[in-house]
């Protein structure tokens, strides 16, 4: 028995030493890989290291013009110069490109070595499990039971992991087979087509233009830049490695290209995402001759759905403090209070109203409106604050938020020309969490009802106007004034910039503060939040450039593109109708 125990200890000590040596070897190689492959420090954005600007020998890529791939101090992409430079500079450029390719091949070699070491480590782990099994058989009865439990659990985990990995691979292959990659699928109409976006080293050409409204632009979002960098690096790695493919006769052959492909050989690519399957990429590179090209098709399959959270959210005790800054506009305030009484008092019942009024003019009417609402529906949860100073939206919201002294509360920053539903109040509660996330809804902005419905006589009540269609309004994705957030988050982030006077600017300033913080910003269209149309005044005191911008904003809020076109060509339309009527009168229909 003593001899068996000593043998067990000796084997365990030997196995521990071998395992420690393997781990130390893996760590050393990983450190060597990091030290060898890490590029020098650069002030360029991440994309500049992977997508250098096109060289002078490739005019179709933009020549020496600026691109998303090159900046001051780029390291991974060889810096290019204008054609016609000194010969020494061009030779230095060629030398840099050769060094870069050697560097990439060295990286590939290191990756392969690391993969081999991982496989060796797995083999050693299997040997360790075999030693443990032999020790279990030699151990006494009580040791046998404990070892059996340990070993059984380990084998079960290994088998379960292999099964899960096989299931995942089958799922990903199934995603590829279902996606529209090599064979088209039947679509019911042109509206069901998922369009491609095209991209080069410099720009992305897109149909869905987003907030910038640019049909072409450099990839602004970091995730988009990282995506294109990864795709291009994967394509170049595949092109520069020996690969097997089938010729026209179906025979497999091994190919090794004599050309070393670089980012400057990339011509263009197209990509599209099927949201239930994955993202397809097709990249085209210059070949070894002027009429030869290399095309790579890559597919990033989406994995199966994963349950992240399953929780119960109780909003019964979540009070919303709606803060409204106001200066005059008593008619709009009365309209706002009608909506407030119906939605907040009669339907929801968990709302406090804070009105911050600037000045003294019409102050008595505002107070009277609040008191009448209080008497009629027995509503006491409101606060009226008066500031005898120049109107500032940010200042009013800041004062209203800090005036609340009864613990933490959910704030909804609102304007007097906003209409919201009871469903929106619940959306506000569900998309905010103290210390974790804030809600910035995208509201639907209403067009001029007179232009939508033709005349004042045909305009329906406000509740019937709130229809989300392209001819009735638009998503105001450039506005950040309506927001739901907890008072503690608002105070901790620093509140508004109260030096901003009038309307505009303070909301973007606060929005950027949250973007720079660790809080999650929920930005989504809200079907229950509307901006009611009101006439926009562009003062004569504005300089020409600001007056032009004001008029452009006024036109955007006035009507849709098609409606403005009909308004612009109304004289031609009226002339056409008159001619039609004259022709009908001169040529009466035959009975």
Automatic annotation (TrEMBL):
Catalytic activity reported = 3-O-(beta-D-GlcA-(1->3)-beta-D-Gal-(1->3)-beta-D-Gal-(1->4)-beta-D-Xyl)-L-seryl-[protein] + UDP-N-acetyl-alpha-D-galactosamine = 3-O-(beta-D-GalNAc-(1->4)-beta-D-GlcA-(1->3)-beta-D-Gal-(1->3)-beta-D-Gal-(1->4)-beta-D-Xyl)-L-seryl-[protein] + UDP + H(+)
Q: Per its UniProt record, what InterPro entries does this chain match?
A: Chond_GalNAc, CS_glycosyltransferase, Nucleotide-diphossugar_trans
Q: Which residues cross the membrane?
A: 12-35
Its predominant location is Golgi
Which Gene3D superfamilies does the record associate with it? Spore Coat Polysaccharide Biosynthesis Protein SpsA, Chain A
Which E.C. number(s) belong to this protein?
2.4.1.-
Write out the annotated subcellular location: Golgi apparatus, Golgi stack membrane
Membrane topology, as annotated, equals: Single-pass type II membrane protein
GO molecular function terms attached to this record: glucuronosyl-N-acetylgalactosaminyl-proteoglycan 4-beta-N-acetylgalactosaminyltransferase activity; glucuronylgalactosylproteoglycan 4-beta-N-acetylgalactosaminyltransferase activity; metal ion binding
Q: Where is this region: Disordered?
A: 42-85
| Coiled coil location | 100-138
Gene Ontology cellular-component terms for this entry are: Golgi cisterna membrane
Task: Note the Pfam families from the entry.
Answer: CHGN (PF05679)
**Which GO terms of type biological process are on file?**
chondroitin sulfate proteoglycan biosynthetic process
Q: Which domain of life is it from?
A: Eukaryota
- UniProt lists compositionally biased (Gly residues) regions at 62-76
Keyword terms, alphabetized: Coiled coil, Glycoprotein, Golgi apparatus, Membrane, Metal-binding, Signal-anchor, Transferase, Transmembrane, Transmembrane helix
Q: Does the keyword Glycoprotein apply?
A: yes
Regarding protein family, the annotation reads:
Belongs to the chondroitin N-acetylgalactosaminyltransferase family.
What is this protein's name? Hexosyltransferase
Species, as recorded: Channa argus
